[in-house]
Amino acid sequence: MKKLISIIGTTGIGKTKLAIQIAQHFSTEIISCDSRQFFKEMKIGTATPSAEELAQVPHHFIGNLSIKDYYSIGQFEKDAIQKLEELFRTRDIVVMVGGSMMYEKAVLEGLHDLPEANEENQTKLQRMLNDEGIGKLQTLLKDLDIDYYNKVDKDNPRRLFRAIDIIWQTGKTYTENIADQVNKRDFEVIRIGIQSPREIIYERINQRVDLMVKNGLVEEVESLIPFKNNLALRTVGYSELFNYFNENWTLDFAIEEIKKNSRRFAKRQLTWYRKEDNINWVNFENLVEESLSLLNTLNIKK
Which NCBIfam families match (predicted)? Predict the structure, then answer.
């Protein structure tokens, strides 16, 4: 059976480095399931792999879209599975990497049999977000489906849009809609997670944000001001700096908020992964050697 090696872990912990080394070891290619790195205009704020890193191994689904494009998780699932089928024709192993938990899940298990986004609902929700802020969407979802509200990434408008849209379309809670639906895949999945003490994760996040600023994050966000209401830009690293450019916050405060919100996201990632029981954990200090040793133990060889 063909094998998909999925590299996961918190933001800033070294997933890109590990994915490249494993892909090189097996002479294969990489599929990204980092939903923020799909957009070509957001290279710095999403820590997109550098040109040098991208040149080392063929990557897919990085910088393939514009922030002007609408792209759903359902579309990604279809595109990713199609790309995997293509790659598996000539390879026994493919590597996937990314910290977008639901996007990884979509590839591994498939999405639930849910209707496509309703354009009228999406427009209504976008107007609500623009006029009343994300708090309005959070309250609405809480009223409609308290169970899903308690576990969803409440700061991600895409998640809120999707859940509320489905509830409106089906008349059932999102939790009811997604119960017990898993698609069978014709490839084996090996998940490798990078683990580290929380203080190391937070320290790396702080350092990464400082490096982003040094590399031109503020200028990148300034160039995107005309599109600040686009869904893709309602995300950490961009929302905070839009507040700076709106003169609501100082630059120093906005940068500290980026660090704080990135740490919050890492905490949500940790919570998500703790609930999973099929992750092979490796230590961040020795991640390549431990990963290759693990794969060898599982009899996954070149």
Answer: miaA
Distance of CA 28 to the CA centre of its chain: 22
Provide the token pair at 53.
Answer: 């890193």
281: helix, coil or strand?
strand
Which amino acids are annotated as binding site for ATP, given as ranges? 9-16
Domain spanning 3-111+183-216+277-297: which superfamily? P-loop containing nucleotide triphosphate hydrolases (3.40.50.300)
- Output the known binding site for substrate: 11-16
- Give the global pTM: 0.82
Annotated binding site: 9-16
Cross-strand partners of 38: none
Closest CA to 2 of 93, 108, 104: 93
Mark 12-21 as b/e (b = at least 16 C-beta within 10 Å).
bbbbbbbbbb
pLDDT tens-place string over residues 175-227: 888 775 556 799 999 999 999 999 999 999 999 999 999 999 999 999 999 99
